[in-house]
Write a structure and sequence with these properties.
disordered C terminus; alpha+beta; 12% strand; 186 residues; three-stranded antiparallel beta sheet
């Protein structure tokens, strides 16, 4: 029996825990179906190759084509869904709050710009709040399709999926990282 190198982590909340913002149907479809497919495809593509023992972030940085697409979408979705909490919401505190105020003037201005970036992203893609490698500057960026800060020089991302979740939260037609043989994010 073949074993999977990567496994889909169990979400830290029930599928209905984010309702009414994100419905259990959306969680089941996008996490249960899309994310599972990305991880299953990733495992098929790396099995018995030089990619098999490589950390997911390294695959994303070095791969192209279907391998990059599935690895990056697996990472993006895990990061995205593990950013939520049924008890979340409100304004950030501490270093993140300070960085947002420093870079955007206020949390309200950041929210406005983040939402605008998502609305103006044509097609599928992601909006990211990332910090440079030195931790000195935070910036909004957007990426088409499966791109993410994992294949750039930014760190500490926060994300929003411009099409699938932010704009169409309950449309079934439309992340922290995982490690080998792990069932939870690191």
């Amino acid at each position: 029996m073949e074993t999977n190198i990567y496994s889909q982590p169990k979400l830290p909340y029930a599928p209905d825990a984010l309702a009414p913002i994100i419905s259990s149907e959306t969680i089941s479809y996008h996490w249960g179906k899309h994310e599972k497919t990305y991880i299953d495809n990733l495992n098929k593509l790396i099995r018995d190759t030089e990619w098999e023992d490589m950390p997911l972030e390294d695959i994303i940085k070095k791969a192209s084509g279907p391998l990059f697409n599935n690895a990056s979408q697996a990472w993006n979705h895990i990061f995205y869904f593990f950013s939520f909490s049924p008890d979340g919401g409100g304004e950030p505190e501490g270093d993140l709050a300070e960085a947002i105020v420093r870079e955007f003037g206020s949390f309200e201005e950041f929210k406005k710009l983040f939402e605008e970036a998502g609305v103006n992203l044509f097609g599928s893609g992601w909006v990211w709040l990332s910090q440079d490698g030195d931790g000195n500057s935070s910036a909004l960026s957007h990426a088409k399709h499966q791109s993410s800060p994992s294949n750039s020089s930014t760190e500490n991302p926060n994300s929003g999926d411009g099409r699938q979740y932010s704009l169409f939260p309950n449309n079934s037609n439309k992340a922290n990282r995982i490690s080998p043989a792990s069932s939870s994010p690191q």
